[in-house]
Structure formats: C-alpha cells, structure tokens
Design brief:
single chain, alpha/beta, Glutamine Phosphoribosylpyrophosphate, subunit 1, domain 1, Rossmann fold, seven-stranded antiparallel β-sheet, 20 helices, 27 strands, 35% helix, binds 5-amino-5-deoxy-1-O-phosphono-D-mannitol
Amino acid sequence: MCGIVGYIGNNKDIALGLEALKRLEYRGYDSAGIAAYDEATGTIVFAKAVGKIENLERKLAGSSIGGSPILLHTRWATHGEATEENAHPHADCKGNIFLVHNGIIENYAQLKQKLAERGHTFASETDTEVLPHLIEHFFRGNLEEAVRKALSLVKGSYAVAVIAKEDPGKIVAARLSSPLVLSVNGSGGFVASDPAALLAHSNKVVFLDDEEVAVVRQDGFSVSDLKNNLKEKEVTELEWSLEEAQKGGYEHFMLKEIMEQPESIANALRGRLLLEEGKARLGGVEHLREKLRQVKRMNILAMGTALYAGRVGEYMLEEYAGIPCEVDSASEFRYRKPVLDEHTASLFVSQSGETADTLAALKEVKDKGGLALGIVNAVGSSIARGTDAGVYNHAGSEIGVASTKAFTSQLTVLALLALFLGRQRDLSLVIGQCIAKELSRLPELVAKTLESAPQVEEMAKKYKGKENFLYIGRKYSYPIAMEGALKLKEISYIHAEGYGAGEMKHGPIALIDENFPTVALCPSDSVYEKMVSSVQEIKARRGPVIAIATEGNKEIGQLADDVLYIPKTLEMLTPVLSVIPLQLFAYYMGVLRGHNVDMPRNLAKSVTVE
Ligand code: M6R
C-alpha cells in the first residue's frame, strides 16, 4: 500500500529522502508528499503532488524546502481520491504536527466527529487526517506521549511516522498490522514502511512489532509499548538486494502477493463486520441503502479473474440474498441489448478499475439510467468514479500480472455484500451471525491454507512436464476451476480448461488418458458426492487426479493420485481457500518451467484497450 520514509540527521537535502522514497514506488502510488522541519524558521514546510514522485520532484525544483527531521510518503489511496488535499503528510490545525500513514483507521468517522465538535477542522477526505488532530488534542510538548495517547483510541491498522515543530529532535513512529522498520547509523536515523527504502544506508534494521512506539533520533532510538513500557529490540542484519527487499524476500511479486492474502483479506474485512447483529457495514453503499432494498435482479460484469469472482458472487447473492444474478463478460455485455429496469442493479468487479471492456459496459448501463455498483481495488479509478456506489477491496497494490490477492479480496467483499443485502431481505439473524463469524476467521484459515506451499511445490515438480490440464468443480467450486485453469495458462503457458464437473461427460472426458491430469475441487460441501463420482469416472480412464479436499477427508486419498487439503469453512467461503493451492500450483509450475511469472508473455496488468 502506501510508502513511508522518515529521516533525522545532518543531511538537510531532500534528495536523500526522495531517493529512499523512490525505492518504494514499485508498491504503487497515486500521489506523493514531503514535510521537513526548517530549523532556521522553526516551521515545518511541506509540498504535495498528484501522480508519480517525479511530479513532486518537479514541484520541489528550485524551492528551498529541506531540513530535518523529514517525512516523505507515496500514497496508494484507500479513502478519498488521488488529490493534493488527500496526499500525505497530513497536519493538525496549527501546523505543528505532521504525519504520514499506511493502513486504515477503522473508527475514523467517530473520531472525526468528536474532534470536529471540539473545533478541529479537516482539509481532506482521508481516514488518516484524524491522527494528527488526535495527537494535537493530547500534545503538551512531548510528541511520543501524545502519539501513545492518540493511538490507544484508534481501531484499525497503521504504520505512522510523526514530527512536531514544537518537539523537533525526533521522529515518532508506531505500528499496528502495517509494517514499519527503523535504522540508526552514522548517517542518522531512518524510518520506513519497507526495508527497501533503507538498504542504501544500512542493512541493519529493527522491525517494529504491533502497538510499539519508537522514538528515533539522529544518534539513537528507543522503543516502548502504548503504555510506555520500554521494549528490548533485536537488530536484524538483512542480506537482501534491493530487488529482493522490494519483494519482501520472496523470489517473485506473485509469491509475495499470494502469501500476503491473510493480510489483504483482513483489510477487506476491517471495520465491516457486525458480529452480534450478523450484518455487514459497507460505508460505500450506505447512502443507497433504501434503493438497494428494492433491487430484484443483478447483473455482474467483469473480465478475467474478476469475472470468476463475480461468478462466485452469483452463488452467494442468490443463496443468501435471494437476488437472481446474471454474470457476463463485460466485453459481451457491452454489445448485447441489456434489459435494465428500476429494480436491476449492475455490479462491476475490477481490480484496476480501468479495464476497457468493464468501463464500456459501465458506460452502457449509465447511459440507460441503470444503477451501477462497484467492487474495485484501485481507489479513484475510472470504474470507482463512474459507479453510483461501491465497496473498495483494500487489497493494496498488486504488482504481479496474475491476479491473486485481489481475487480473494473480491470474494471476501462479495460475501460481505451478500450478507449486507441478505440481511435487508430474508436472511435470519442466526445465519447472518454465522456468516459474519466465519468471515472473521478467514485470515487465519487462509494463513493455514498457505502452509501447504512446500507440498504444492513438490507436486508441481511431479507434474511440470504435462502439457494439458482439466480443472473441474461444481457450484461454488465451478468458478474456482475456471480461475485455477486461467492461472495455470497465464503463468506456465500450459493448456488448461476449467469446467463444471457435470459437463465432463458431455465432451471433455474424451480428452482423459494417463497423460491428461485433472485438478478436481472436492471440498466437503453439498455437492461432494457428485464430485467423487466425477473423480471415479476419470480414474476409470486412467487419468491422474489432483484433488483439493477438506481436512480430515481420508476417502478422497484412496481415489486421487494427490490431495491438497484446505481447512473446513462455510460452503460459500470455501472458494477463498480452495483457490490458494491452485494459485501456488500455477506459480510453481511457471517457475519450474523457467517463465517470468511476474510478467507473463503477451499479458498486461491492466487491459485498457478493447
Ligand atoms: O483490473 P481488472 O480486475 O478489471 O482486470 C481484469 C482482468 O484483466 C484480470 O483479472 C486478468 O484476467 C488477470 N491477468 C488475471 O490474472
């Protein structure tokens, strides 16, 4: 998500901070900003620009901005579009406190209201801006004390770096569920959201843990918890190259993003579950609450992986909200004659929010006066702006061309939407509570599923020479079969087909022989027995079978050649888990076959042409 850099030391030239910030630009950006303490005037000077860091550099050229301590930030928007007002650093009312933030402040609306009642004025639409104002509220001359008090009131996730002109000899940094690292060496003290920013200066770093507050000075640092108990911290010596650091030590962005899924799903859920009420709180669609209650039919429109998320959404929305859905490729929908009425909503799912076909389908719906909803990852993107209401994924920037963490966050948001719409209709409190509870467990279940990575890698070694694969599933697992096949095609260039298992006998079974493996999605759900029959039919034709099954299922092991287990969860949420071994399988197959998995041939991350 966002990138943070902080520096305190003798070097007052902004070039040092800008160079470090550029090391974080790979994470995505929509705007950048800088704030520096100018000793001569005793003020904090700042500048912001929309777009790349070079836009900020251009703005700063010829200016006298500089000093120490200094904070820099690249923003990847979560609340509010990419504008200068929304860019960080954000400040308090008096221009004393400046802060940069990565994460999401869940209770910002409540905090903002209370602060506004006390006379604070706000200049942006961001969740972040409440933080400098909250710190201002507690500030009595000691910055770390005010930061500690403010952060004890905050719910959500944060990595923050803060400076104050009235307490200028330090940077105060803190984290909760968002990474933050510091380093103090001969050149001064550094803070960053990512070690990649610091490597040019030192490879000896200290990783902050949750609810720790660091005071970083030019020649030393101390770390304490939110109650001001001092903590001993270990210095870690990194042996990473810059590129390795940007990938968090993983070999590829795709693997990093697969492994980030517990966190990206937690971000998609953050602040949105009402466990007691068995409901979802979706701020982005709240203003249309009454209109949404009248929706009787839904079109779900998207492309590629986002389309398969939409197909899972169809099952969720029909089963739990009772809303009939039609899912279509946006590229087909745009040339059809869509029948829309005042009770039809069209839901657009897109990671980038810029996919040309999805955008064209959106335009078609809007031109006809239809209600358009969005599930989008990129804040302020064309689709996010063009829809009437929507829910952001908050998955962070996805760099690998193959969509992985964006997909599972789309599924998570679709489940939240089904819960939201379901509880407006016939869905009972008890079932709502059960869905909300299980959704809250997802990050933990995903982390458990990821433990199978070494086993998947071994399996890929066994199958890497195969040139064709069939993926089959039923009901919720049918779109996952299609997504698994798409991942394999994209990354390993192996021919793969995703089918509904019921279709197999109507054609694809002709392909099966001992050289044509099938990946069969067989979780213990309402269609498990049917899947077992399909697997039996494949085995009767000597086809190798890799089964994805629920932990504890021993039966399937007697039938399939290989089994990858996933934890038990609700049938509607199983796709979030079952797709993970398929993502890993595609990744390892691609790597073993020597392909560039982050930038597969012929593909672009965002398809902005028809
Ligand atoms: O940005 P979008 O979600 O709208 O992109 C849609 C597809 O282009 C995208 O999912 C594509 O299929 C990916 N390469 C899949 O890994």
